[in-house]
Design brief:
413 residues; alpha/beta; Aspartate Aminotransferase, domain 1; 13 strands; 7-stranded mixed β-sheet; 14 helices
C-alpha cells in the first residue's frame, strides 16, 4: 500500500488529537458537514459515509436486494475486496477481461457474459482513468441492469462536467491513505437512482458505528502515519510502523483473505464513518482541487520523459492519475531499482490484488482472461501523491525510457 493522498497536514493532526478526548468522537455534527460538503462539490443529492469503501459497496448490493447466485460483472483486474463484498452478499462475481490501453473493463466483451442472472455492471475507473462509462450505461439500459461505479481510484474525475460516481445508479469511493483523499479509513456512497433511495436509507439507518475503542485506534494510527511516513524520515518511519503494527498499535481493516462475512469478527461490516474521521474528510475534500492539480503536475513530469500518453489524455478531466501506469518487461529489475528511491508498491499484480492464490475461491478460473493476466505480469505504476519528488527519479526514468523495456506503445491513447 502506498503512502498518503499527499495533502494531509499539521492542522489535521492537531484537530484529530483534540477530538480524541471529545464526547462526539464517534457520532457528531462533522459527519453532517462532511456529507454536505461532498454534496456541494459533486452536485449530488444523496451521499452516505462509511468506515470503508468496500462496506459501502456491500450496502449498495443489499439495497438493490441482491439474491443468492445473482451475477455481477466486474473487471478481472481489481482489488480482492470487490469480489469479497459480492460473495458476502451471496452473489457471484463474473470476470470480464480488460483493455491493455487503459486497464479498464473491455466493454466489447461485456454482453457475451450477460445471462438471466446478471444484475449489475461494475464500472471501475482504474488508476484514476475513467472507463467507458457511457457505453456501460448504454448496455445496462439494453438489458435492464444496474450500474455501480467504483471511484476508489478516481475521485474528482469527470466527463461532460459530471463527476465519476454520479453517472451510474450508484457510485462509491474509498478514502484510505492510498487513495486520492485520506481520512485514515473511510468511504463514500452516492445513490443516484431515486428508486433505491428509500431502500438504502432503511438499511443505512440500522448500520452501526465502529466502537469508540476502535475509532480511537484508527485515529491514532492516522496521526502516527502522518508523522512516521513523512518523506524526511520515511524509511525509519516505515520500520517503526512495522513494529507498531506487530504491537497492534496501528489498526487497519484486514478482511482481504475472507470470502465469508462471518469470518469478520473484529469490527462490524458494514459500519458508518466515525465523526473524528469525518472531520479529517472535511479538510481533505476542501483540498481536492489542489490535490488533483499537483497529481497532474507529477504525471506530466513522468510523461514528458516516458511519453506513454498523449498530452490531451493526461490533461483531460476524465483522468486524475492516482497512479501513472504502463507495461514493462523485466519488472522485477525495475521494481528493485525504483524501490530504492521511493515506496513504489506496484498495484494489481494479480487479477484480484490482495490475493495471490486459490482464485477459485473468488470464482475466478486462471486462463479465462488473457489480457488481464498478461497485464498483471507486466504492470508498472508510479505514485502521484504530493510527497513524491519526481525530479529525484529523473535519471531512472530516462534509464527506463532508453532500456527498450517499455511494452506500452507511445501515444496509445
Amino acid at each position: 500500500m502506498n503512502v498518503f493522498s499527499g495533502t494531509n497536514n499539521f492542522f489535521e493532526i492537531k484537530s484529530t488529537f483534540r477530538k480524541l478526548f471529545s464526547k462526539n468522537m464517534v457520532d457528531g455534527h462533522e459527519i453532517v458537514l462532511y456529507e454536505q460538503a461532498i454534496k456541494n462539490i459533486f452536485n449530488a443529492n444523496n451521499v452516505f459515509t462509511f468506515a470503508s469503501g468496500r462496506m459501502g459497496f456491500y450496502t449498495i448490493l443489499k439495497a438493490i436486494d441482491i439474491k443468492k447466485d445473482d451475477e455481477i460483472i466486474i473487471p478481472s483486474f481489481t482489488c480482492v475486496v470487490v469480489p469479497n463484498a459480492i460473495l458476502y452478499s451471496g452473489a457471484k462475481p463474473i470476470y470480464c477481461d480488460i483493455q491493455e490501453t487503459d486497464f479498464n473493463i473491455d466493454v466489447s466483451k461485456i454482453e457475451t457474459l450477460i445471462t438471466s442472472k446478471t444484475r449489475v455492471l461494475y464500472a471501475q475507473h482504474t488508476f484514476g482513468q475513467m472507463s467507458n462509462i457511457n457505453k456501460i450505461i448504454e448496455i445496462s439500459k439494453k438489458y435492464n441492469l444496474i450500474v455501480i461505479e467504483d471511484v476508489a481510484l478516481a475521485l474528482g474525475s469527470k466527463i461532460h462536467n459530471q463527476y465519476a460516481g454520479t453517472l451510474g445508479d450508484f457510485g462509491y469511493v474509498s478514502t484510505d491513505r492510498s487513495k486520492i483523499i485520506n481520512t485514515g479509513l473511510g468511504g463514500i456512497v452516492f445513490v443516484n437512482n431515486k428508486n433505491y433511495i428509500k431502500n438504502f436509507e432503511n438499511i443505512y439507518r440500522n448500520i452501526p458505528y465502529l466502537s469508540e475503542t476502535l475509532t480511537k485506534k484508527i485515529a491514532i494510527s492516522f496521526i502516527i502515519n502522518i508523522i512516521t511516513l513523512n518523506p524526511w524520515f520515511y524509511w525509519l518511519g516505515k520500520f517503526i510502523n512495522t513494529i507498531l503494527s506487530k504491537l497492534k498499535i496501528l489498526v487497519y481493516f484486514l478482511d482481504e483473505p475472507f470470502t465469508n462475512k462471518d469470518q469478520i469478527s473484529k469490527y462490524p461490516y458494514p459500519a458508518r464513518l466515525s465523526n473524528i474521521l469525518a472531520n479529517i474528510g472535511l479538510s481533505q475534500i476542501q483540498l481536492l482541487n489542489k490535490n488533483l492539480y499537483n497529481r497532474k503536475k507529477i504525471t506530466n513530469y513522468y510523461n514528458n520523459i516516458l511519453q506513454i500518453y498523449t498530452y490531451d489524455y493526461i490533461n483531460s478531466k476524465q483522468n486524475v492519475f492516482l497512479r501513472y501506469s504502463f507495461l514493462i518487461k523485466n519488472r522485477n529489475t525495475w521494481e528493485e531499482k525504483f524501490s530504492k528511491k521511493i515506496d513504489l508498491s506496484i498495484w494489481f499484480k494479480t487479477i484480484a490484488s490482495g490475493r495471490n492464490n486459490n482464485f477459485e475461491e473468488i470464482n475466478y478460473n486462471i486462463g479465462s482472461n488473457n489480457t488481464s493476466e498478461y497485464v498483471c505480469k507486466h504492470i508498472f505504476n508510479l505514485p502521484t501523491h504530493n510527497q513524491i519528488k519526481p525530479e529525484k527519479l529523473e535519471k531512472l526514468l530516462y534509464e527506463l525510457k532508453n532500456s527498450g523495456d517499455i511494452i506500452t506503445k507511445e501515444h496509445i491513447l
